[in-house]
Amino acid sequence: MKRTLLLFCLIVSTVYSFSQASYDLTYDEENNTAINAGLLMGGGGIVGVDIEHKVNRIIGFQAGLGLSSFGAGMTFHFRNTINSSFASIQYWRQGLGNNYFGSYLGPMFVFRAKKYFQAGIGLGYIVDKGSILDTKYRDQNIMAVYNIGVYFPL
């Protein structure tokens, strides 16, 4: 009788334990690419577009073009999805030719909402100063970099 009661308790506890587990039997293909558009994107242009592609669960790369600017970066996502917030190392080049403002390299944090909205802020170490960089910025080595816009997973 003791063995039967013990066996019954073990079966009930095992069934109860496994019933708490969540098994997802469906496979949902994950989006690994996103297009971002907005203000100060694509290397810090007034308006710009970036494309980002994740190469594994965390790391991704992005590149973009803006109105007289371009940029690139390496992203480190906090979760396994393309719509998660991330930290990145960015290179921005604002201006081209006679309108060259400056080039920056530095860390950035980008917040992404679950759908569409994103905003980023970071520090850009001035790599190169252009001829039209305002005189009040000539003595600085660091500038704030930021952007705001929308993203669309592909």
Describe the structure.
- With 154 residues, this protein is mostly beta strands.
- Helix content is 12%, strand content 50%.
- An eight-stranded antiparallel beta barrel has the order 1-2-3-4-5-6-7-8.
- The longest helix is centred in the first third of the chain and has 18 residues, at 2-19.
Identify the notable features of this structure and list them briefly.
mainly beta, 12% helix, 154 residues, 8-stranded antiparallel barrel, single chain
Strand-helix topology:
Elements: H1 2-19, E1 33-39, E2 47-54, E3 59-66, E4 69-77, E5 86-94, E6 102-112, E7 117-129, E8 142-153
Antiparallel strand pairs: 1-2, 1-8, 2-3, 3-4, 4-5, 5-6, 6-7, 7-8
Determine the structural class based on helices, strands and strand pairing. Answer: mainly beta
Number of strands: 8
Write down the overall geometry.
Answer: elongated
Share in helix: 10-25%
Assess the beta-strand content as a share of residues.
over 45%
* Poorly predicted runs of 5 or more residues: 23-28
Order of helix and strand elements from N to C terminus: HEEEEEEEE
Number of helices: 1
What about the largest sheet?
A: 8 strands, antiparallel, barrel
How confident overall, as mean pLDDT? 85
